[in-house]
Amino acid sequence: MRRVNISGVAGDSLARQLIAHLILLLGAIFLLSPIILVVMSSSHTTLTLQQVGLQWGLGDHALQNYSAILNFEAGFTDQVTPLRMLANSLIVAIGVATLTTVLSLLTAYSIVFFRMKLAGLIFWLVLITLLFPLESRFVTSFQVTSTLGLINSHAGIILPTLAAALGTFFFRQFYLELSEELMEAATLDGAGPVRFLKDIILPLSVPRAGAIFVIAFMIGWNQYLWPLMISTDDSLYTLVRGIRLVGQESGPGMALIVITIFPPFMLLLIFQRWFFRTLSING
Predict the structure, then answer these.
(1) Which residues make Cβ contacts (< 8 Å) with residue 192, sequence separation at least 6?
(2) Residue 88: count of CB within 10 angstroms of its CB
């Protein structure tokens, strides 16, 4: 009768688990190191940051830096304040996230369920927009925005960023996996396209809509070049633009970066269950 060395198997399994956890720990430290560096540097003086560089240790100037940024005012009429920049960032990010999610859902719904002959071609045309980011079409986007009279407006910042094919792709793949019996049952029940969308598709799409909302929110929140190009009004400054205005190598500037990171981080925590479930294979 063959004997199995249980202690050896258990020891080998424990070693593998330790190596796996060590790799995960090192990966987490590597990914979080820029955030840790910024948070720690926000507690040091501007002179220290300019002479020595970013700091890994905690300083004693955090209260002064955060107080300075909360009382910060700039611009020709002192309209650039932290609260106004925060409000502008939220308006842009929420606007981009909401409209992108709605447009992506409706586009995917029409492609999958309306049985159009050119549905495949339309989907690929939508998907091709991934090859042309906003930066590659600044000139034409600016001309269109100017023609519509949207210069120096929130709408001018939001609308050109809505051509995001990623959301349409996610929704389309999910709808293709749905059972055809759902459509047949809805048809037999007398449900039209609007009722089918409202009663069946929307409840099933909530987790994916939450994930797409988070991704689009990040895109809208982190915009820098397009708001810089389309707006010259001090009242439209966002937090990301404000970092350069405050000073990237200053203590208050580091404090503003920490404040800028906080809202997207909280949003990701709130939607993390939907977000990771959607991105998983069996989500």
Answers:
(1) none
(2) 23
